[in-house]
Amino acid sequence: MWWIGCDEFMKVFAYRHRIDKGTLNEWRGKLTGLREHGERITLKVVRLCDLWRETVDAKALCAVALWDGLKREGRV
Q1: How far is CA 74 from the centre of its chain?
Q2: Which residues lie closer than 8 Å to 18 by C-beta, 6 or more apart?
Q3: What pLDDT score does 1 carry?
Q4: Is the pLDDT reported for residue 33 higher than 80?
Q5: CA nearest 45: which of 65, 70, 17, 26?
Q6: Rounded distance between C-alpha atoms, residue 11 and residue 59, angstroms
Q7: Which member of 2, 6, 33, 75 lies 3.0 to 4.6 Å from 39 by CB, making a disulfide possible if both were Cys?
């Protein structure tokens, strides 16, 4: 039997702020990243409730699960 563990600790912060649709549309598809380091990042704006469908990033998925649990308990 294999046991896998991790001692990594990270703090998760939530910041809620309404952004108008015009600003979201400006951000959608925006190119970011350090070009001199070969980074070519395209911003994709998704609803929080759809994030689990859009990423395989474990930290993002854990944060969404934590947020959903806190919402269910009425703590946010």
Answers
A1: 21
A2: none
A3: 65
A4: yes
A5: 26
A6: 11
A7: 33
Query: For the whole model, what pTM was predicted?
Result: 0.62
Amino acid at the residue 31: L
- For residues 57 and 76, give the distance between their C-alpha atoms in angstroms, rounded to a whole number: 23
Find residue 32's DSSP bridge partners: 41
Structure tokens at 44: 């994709």
Residue 28 confidence class, pLDDT cut points 50, 70, 90: confident
End-to-end CA distance of the chain: 39
CA-CA distance, 1 to 71, in Å (whole number)?
36
